[in-house]
UniProtKB/TrEMBL annotation:
The lineage of its organism: Bacteria, Pseudomonadati, Pseudomonadota, Betaproteobacteria, Burkholderiales. It comes from the Bacteria. Keywords: DNA-binding, Transcription, Transcription regulation. This is Helix-turn-helix transcriptional regulator. GO terms for molecular function: DNA binding. InterPro entries: Sig_transdc_resp-reg_C-effctor, Tscrpt_reg_LuxR_C, WH-like_DNA-bd_sf. It holds the Pfam family GerE. SUPFAM superfamilies: C-terminal effector domain of the bipartite response regulators.
Length: 254
């Protein structure tokens, strides 16, 4: 018999907030803000790969959500539509009918997966700098399946974390289903300059205006002025919305 997971009062509060916020997700920007906010509070991670599969197993969609800048090569290795690591992990787990699945990269590798279902991916995960993975999915339905892979959890993942993800699974699935298949955001008022794109990249790394100024060799006030011009170009009003808008338009990936 599986052990009963009893949530603390704080965990219950985080879970309820994540569920309530997920009910309103209907755009790529909202999905980004939700997964980088309430979901992170309950299940901190570095990268979230979300996949939808057709009833026959064909990949319909893959979204890679992350709050820090990923090198193009790392992004392709993780979220490639042909043979990306997230896709192969999802299919491996579905084929083995083992969901949820987790990998603890601590002292005892694979301690969270006694059957070793994820051990075959050790070398690739190490090469990309990830030592922990948590995977869950809906299983096959009449409309196909959804699978979610969390990379780089700061804590050693356990059955408790798998339970959190299982509670959120229906809401992640429905939110992913509600996202428009094609990006529907209009283009920005103008293209971002090289310096503005650089600033957005550092913004995504969580740098303050002062820190960005030191990195770029300019004043914090100049950084602030750049940010104001970025907001106007993107049609947003703050840092979080600017990041979400860039994600929606795939500006950073370009």
């Amino acid at each position: 018999m599986e052990a009963v997971v009893i949530l603390s009062r704080l965990e219950q509060e985080y879970l309820l907030r994540a569920i309530e916020s997920g009910l309103r997700v209907a755009s790529a920007r909202q999905f980004f803000l939700w997964t980088q906010g309430q979901l992170q509070a309950l299940l901190p991670h570095r990268v979230l790969a979300c996949m939808r599969f057709a009833p026959g197993g064909a990949l319909l969609r893959i979204e890679c959500v992350h709050g820090t800048v990923l090198a193009p090569s790392a992004l392709a290795a993780l979220a490639g539509r042909r043979d990306g690591l997230a896709l192969r992990i999802a299919r491996h787990c579905m084929l083995g009918a083992r969901l949820p699945a987790l990998l603890d990269g601590g002292e005892q590798r694979g301690a969270g997966a006694p059957d070793g279902i994820l051990r075959t991916f050790h070398a690739e995960l190490d090469a990309l700098g990830f030592d922990s993975v948590l995977v869950h999915g809906t299983g096959q339905t009449l409309e196909g399946a959804s699978v979610f892979v969390l990379f780089g959890l700061p804590m050693r993942p356990s059955a408790r974390h798998a339970h959190f993800l299982e509670c959120l699974l229906p809401h992640l699935h429905l939110a992913l289903m509600r996202l428009p298949q094609e990006r529907q955001g209009t283009a920005p008022a103008r293209a971002l300059s090289a310096r503005e794109t650089e600033i957005v990249g550092w913004l995504r790394e969580g740098k303050s205006n002062g820190e960005m100024g030191q990195i770029l060799g300019i004043s914090a006030l100049t950084v602030k002025n750049h940010l104001q011009r970025i907001y106007r170009a993107l049609g947003v009003s703050n840092r979080a919305h600017a990041l979400a808008r860039c994600m929606e338009l795939r500006l950073l990936e370009a």
